[in-house]
Amino acid sequence: MSRLKVIVAFIFGAVTAAQAQTSYLWKQGTSGGYSYKYVSNDPTHSRFYTLKNGLTVVLSPTPKQPRIQTYIAVKAGSKTDPATHTGLAHYLEHLMFKGTDKYGSLDWSKEKPLLDKIDALYEQYNSTKDEAKRKEIYKEIDKVSGQAAKYAIANEYDKMMSSMGAQGTNAFTSFEQTVYTEDIPASAVDKYLSVQAERFRYPVFRIFHTELEAVYEEKNRGLDNDSRKVFETMFAALFPNNNYGKQTTIGTIEHLKNPSLKEIRKYFYTYYVPNNMGVIMSGDFNPDEMIRKIDRSFSYMKAKAIPAYTFSPEKPIPAPVAKEVFGPTPENIMIGYRFPGAATPDAQMLNLVGEILTNGKAGLFDLNLTKKQKMLSAGAFSYNLKDYSVLLLQGNPIKGQSLDDVKSLMLGEIEKLKKGEFDETLITSIVNNLKKSTLEENQNYTSRAGNLMDAFTSGIDWSARVATADKLSKITKRQIVDFANKYLKDNYVIVYKRQGEDKNVLKVEKPPITPVEVNRDAQSPFLKTIATMPSNKVNPSWLDFNRDIERTKSGPLNVLAVKNKDNSIFGLYYRYNMGSLNNKLLPMAAEYIQYLGTDKMTAEEISKEFYKLAASFRVNTSNEVSTVSISGLQENFDKTIRLYESVLNNCKADEAALKGLKERMKKSRENAKLNKSLIMQGLVNYAQFGAKNPFNNVLTDAELEAVTAQQLVDLLHDLGKFEHTVLYYGPRTAEQIAAELKPLHAAPASFKPAPQQLSFERTKQDKNQVLFADYDMVQAEIEWVKNSEKYNPEQTPTVELFNNYFGGGMSTIVFQTIRESKALAYSTYAFYNAPQKKDDNYTMVAYVGTQADKVNDAVGAMNELLTNLPESDKVFNVAKDNIRKSLETERITDQDILFNYLAAERRGLNYDIRKNVYDSVGNMGFADIRSFFDKELKSKPYTYCIVASEKRVKEDDLKKYGDFTKLSLEQIFGY
Fold it and tell me: Quick check: is 474 in a domain?
């Protein structure tokens, strides 16, 4: 659940397209008996309250969908972990899902003495060094934990949230924030607040040792994640004095092995206080009513002084600092520069510098490194934190290129920045694209809430954030050059990610755990109270494809349109019913076009022009469908479409570009063989279709080498001659856009027939099989794969209910059994997947990511669930409630209406299947999914797809599950 990621354009908040010279000032308002602050001309209309106990509440109402994105954020993370107990904030995040004395317990009076005993045993375990004594103490911990678990109700929090129709139940911990997130129906807000107020009142850390096992698993997953290791190494070198570098979010192995419940509880009472917390909401609500409810719910909390985080300022870096990280993934480098913190003007300037270097189209890295194919990929990203910010440069080499070559190329672009070797109009283009992207963000209630939450936890002034576009438009090229010369010197850290064995990896050894009770059919009185609380009735809304989509013709082309009533952004799509199964060259041509010029413009000039227009285009090709996606501002529609059509129809064969593309593709293909996720994807395809399958239906090495530039250009020039449908989302009507498009997008009198599509027959699974791929990793990943029946829309309600009951979330049978009870995995799920088209088959896929030494236990646990479906009325009713209440408040809007229609059409449907699910699920009983399970899944043969290190798993053990085949990477990938 922890989050460590590079945040691009961090401060780019909500702005509108007509805000030049507008003032953004803090104002005071009063409404509904509460005072609040707001920023003038803030298009999100956010209100910032501070309650009497210091709790910050940020409310941003938007009625587009009857749902609310909520965050409860605590300004505490790994930075504030005690040095003697690193990873503690992350531990606590996990434990906040375990309940209180009022929920999560069958009998608190009997459970509490046992939990107190466990507390004391962990303190004894923590202070004991003798390994033999530690094992004895842990046996007692395991024993008493088993006794205590008899009074625990696992996942009761998840059940309450699921039953009210919540989605995205989760949390994350980072350097200076721990955030709890829910997406709830607006009608369930009273239930939500009642649960959250109780959750933070008196958390009980029950079922601790199995949750600790999940954290162990998360740590070991991190040890298998080379990107995480590079990131942690970078921050350790940049911040030797600050806990950004001195500590990691998940903590050290030593501290993980010696947890202290008393220290975790102490941390909670120190930092989880109202003056250090924020409740952030965006969605469909009346802010006057909402603030009263939040105040009433959280008024019990008492303010408390927060310990100030202090650190010695980082000393200047006098010369480059080089570090190395080893692992099985492809080689790359990361370069990092240190900057002032997020709330400073310099941090705002840093974000602009990041955009000048990388913006996806016209940045220095984009044009000079990626566009010219000098590297496989290159990017520059700003990462803003409270105490410091960072500029990160990331580069991946092409075949035969050294990491030092990559370093020189990226630093060369930094020198160009310092010398001012970039077009000053780039600043204007960045501002225009910022306006477009933030218009898009404002349409989405989840994006609004996320931006407000980030600003709260990082200490960003919201008025500065909404004024970003105005501020950027006033910055001069001279200021940027001076800024770059001030900060970008030989004062960087460089981390070389090299391929090879990481000899420093230490697996987290875990003591044996006896499976505990989960009491899945039990309910606390508190849950029953929540269940009986009234909620406002919300009527579901279904799509009517005839009503919601305008249809017309533009010449021979069918045009489908949905009107954008919110802003001036458009999206235009040309959809072709052909893909790589029709022509293996299509994906290559789709990539090649970005490197091509025309008789009038170079490839670089084309990118700059699209960026100036705040527009973009891309060509995506899947197995059976290709889509050209063009987006921009409606006022630039004519220019944008003309530019795309000119590129497509007039692009010229470029042998140098093809040579570069081939070299990059070769390197990408090599890198794919080092990606465990892609290896698993290949195994799954092999299980479904056999040795020849859609995954390895790619160009062979010889075919790739033989491709000519003219072949690809001819394919691009011919693209518009194949039959396609035009999709439009924007402020124009279908008739208007058809008329505008007709002179811009010429269509032939008759279309060329698409090449015949290659088809693959699914394998007949009449016995268990094991497909194994060797990969150097601490963990083992296992997927169970079974081909099933042909698609049947009448089965959809049953499939949806089964997935919600069995393995589709944290309140399901699979999660409760394999993670909560048996502590066998950090991540586990099981789905009966519907195909994308009517003539295809369902596929059952189950997954466990576990330690190599627990493979046998994990396989046994999942096999038991796939053989005997546990029955639980309570979990079943939660699954039904979640489906119905989620569907009541789900609204498919904007361009999603078009793509939902196309998805339905591929399945042979001309109606919204969600209505059938909603109408049917309420009348279904457990016997319905039992019958489905017995018919489709019970005791059926499966193919086990396993990616693991052959050094850590025994082949003889794997052979027990079925006919064993070890596949080579060439067999998996087809080259």
Answer: no
Average pLDDT over residues 248-263: 88
- Identity at 780, one-letter amino acid code: A
**Number of domains into which the chain is organized:** 3
Last residue of a domain, one of 725, 741, 757: 741
Lowest mean pLDDT among 218-227, 400-409, 665-674: 218-227
Rounded CA-CA distance 78/88 in Å is 7
How much is the pLDDT for 507? 64
Split at pLDDT 50, 70, 90, the class of 21 is low
Whether 231 maps to a domain, the answer reads: no
Report the chain's mean pLDDT, rounded to a whole number. 94
Characterize the bridge pairing of strands 277-283 and 67-74.
antiparallel
What mean pLDDT do residues 203-213 have? 87
Distance between CA atoms of 747 and 677, rounded to whole angstroms? 41
Is 672 a residue whose pLDDT tops 90? yes
Q: What is the pLDDT of residues 867-890, one digit of tens each?
A: 999 999 999 999 999 999 999 999
Residue 47's beta-bridge partner residues?
A: 59
Inside any domain, residue 527? no
Q: Quote the CA–CA distance of 159 and 21 in Å, as a whole number.
A: 50
Mean pLDDT of 730-752: 95
Domain boundary among 266, 281, 304: 304
CB-based contact 627:727 (threshold 8 Å): no
Q: What would the 3-class secondary structure string for 821-850 be?
A: HCCCCCEEEEEEECCCCCCCEEEEEEEEEE
Tally of residues, the chain: 975
Residue carrying the six token digits 């092999």:
686
In a domain, 427, yes or no: no
What residues contact 498, with CB distance under 8 A and at least 6 apart? 324, 325, 326, 331, 403
Give SS3 for 388: strand
Based on the fold, state whether residues 822 and 721 are members of the same structural domain.
no
CA–CA distances in Å: residue 212 to residues 121, 457, 513, 800 = 15, 27, 11, 32
- Find, among 460, 422, 753, the residue nearest to 583 by Cα: 753
pLDDT at 449 over 60: yes
For residues 805 and 923, membership in a common domain is answered with: yes
Neighbours of 860 (CB within 10 A): 12
Same domain, 583 and 666: yes
What pLDDT sits at residue 806? 97
Residue with tokens 């270097």: 357
Q: Is the pLDDT of residue 508 over 70?
A: no
Helices (H), 128-282: 131-149, 156-163, 189-199, 208-223, 226-238, 243-246, 253-256, 261-271
Indicate whether 133 and 207 sit together in one domain: yes
Residue 512 confidence class, pLDDT cut points 50, 70, 90: confident
Q: What is the CATH number of the domain that holds 801?
A: 3.30.830.10
Residue 653 has pLDDT above 80, yes or no: yes
Phi, psi of 435 (to 5 degrees): -60, -40
Range of the domain at 574: 545-741
Alpha-carbon gap, residue 370 to 406, rounded angstroms: 12
- Same domain? For 657 and 802 the reply is no
The radius of gyration of the chain's CA atoms, rounded to the nearest angstrom, is 29
> Do 784 and 655 belong to one domain?
no
Going by pLDDT thresholds of 50, 70 and 90, the confidence category of residue 778 is: confident
CA dihedral 828, 830, 836, 838 (to 10 degrees): 170
Residues 664 and 811 in one domain: no
pLDDT tens digits for range 814-837: 999 999 888 898 899 999 999 999
- Name the residue among 175, 326, 331, 178 with its Cα closest to residue 239: 175
Q: Which residue has the tokens 């064969």?
A: 653
Q: Note whether 50 and 135 are same-domain residues.
A: yes
| Full DSSP string of 748-796 | -SSPBPPPPPP--PPP---S-EEEEEE---SEEEEEEEEEEEEP-GGGH
